Backbone:
């Protein structure tokens, strides 16, 4: 049964920008985050404390978090790869963290230069400290529906890594279609296996890329199964630098429009999201790529 209300977890400032070659100034990132919170988004993944060499676009993570104007009721998670990243995040004032591994060994090696098992051990002290401090913690399972190096991914692999991450004590898993290859049957197959393994729907967020135009139908499918947390990136930016052929995330404005038409509550204002999307598109020096960014909403909203 589809939920009457869903969460929209905004990843634009982090996942949306990480693979962009056009540099974005720190002031513009902070303004973007402010516009997103103006739109009613209450979970905004803000930056990543990975090596600046690996992700140059997010080299200003410390400054972004120190200068961030926090709003009551808004969560600002940051991505951390290991204990060193956690130390930087804590020094910068972070109070919600995300860790990330993959459903395949090849993608884990290319993305974080560790095996899945090694990544779990690297995250153990990070999640333990987060729990001790009362922080919210999330874990990404990348390449859960398809891997650029290994092809199709068996659902057993997703279940195994999901169990290992839940045992660390994270609050939420983000099951991720990093390549944007999944269709509705894949969503039913993988989420069915995860559910049968005892992981509740309210502990799962779905992270769909729209590389092949299937993100929205995958959202509808997941909602029909009772899932109600969905990642999106305002402006449709994003794509993994470690996944050849991947394109942008599901655009927040496209998701908001769908939910509005279906009468599903979410608390986000479409016009304000489009304003934030236009702001960042200007900074990146290109037109909006999302469907709503090109066509506008109906009735009334304009890109």
Residues:
């Amino acid at each position: 049964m589809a939920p009457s209300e869903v969460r929209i977890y905004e990843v634009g400032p982090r996942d949306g920008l990480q693979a962009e070659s056009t540099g974005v100034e720190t002031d513009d990132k902070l303004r973007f985050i402010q516009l997103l919170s103006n739109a009613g988004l209450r979970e905004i993944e803000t930056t990543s404390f990975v090596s600046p060499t690996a992700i140059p676009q997010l080299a200003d993570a410390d400054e972004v978090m120190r200068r961030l104007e926090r709003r009551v009721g808004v969560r600002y998670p940051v991505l951390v790869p290991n204990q060193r990243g956690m130390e930087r995040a804590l020094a910068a004032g972070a109070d919600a963290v995300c860790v990330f591994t993959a459903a395949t060994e090849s993608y884990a090696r290319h993305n974080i230069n560790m095996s899945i098992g090694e990544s779990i051990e690297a995250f153990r002290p990070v999640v333990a400290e987060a729990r001790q401090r009362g922080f919210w913690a999330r874990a990404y399972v990348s390449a859960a529906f398809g891997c650029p190096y290994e092809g199709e991914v068996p659902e057993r692999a997703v279940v195994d890594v999901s169990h290992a991450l839940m045992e660390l004590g994270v609050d939420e898993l983000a099951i991720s279609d990093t390549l944007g290859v999944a269709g509705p049957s894949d969503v039913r197959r993988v989420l069915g296996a995860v559910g049968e393994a005892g992981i509740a729907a309210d502990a799962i967020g779905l992270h769909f890329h729209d590389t092949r135009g299937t993100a929205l139908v995958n959202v509808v499918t997941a909602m029909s199964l009772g899932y109600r947390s969905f990642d999106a990136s305002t402006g449709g930016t994003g794509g993994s630098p470690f996944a050849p052929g991947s394109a942008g995330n599901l655009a927040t404005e496209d998701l908001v429009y769908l939910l509005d038409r279906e009468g599903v509550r979410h608390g986000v204002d479409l016009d304000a999201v489009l304003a934030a999307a236009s702001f960042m598109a200007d900074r990146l020096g290109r037109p909006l790529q999302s469907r709503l960014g090109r066509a506008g909403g109906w009735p009334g909203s304009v890109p």
Summary: The longest strand covers residues 96-102. The mean pLDDT is 95. The radius of gyration is 18 Å.
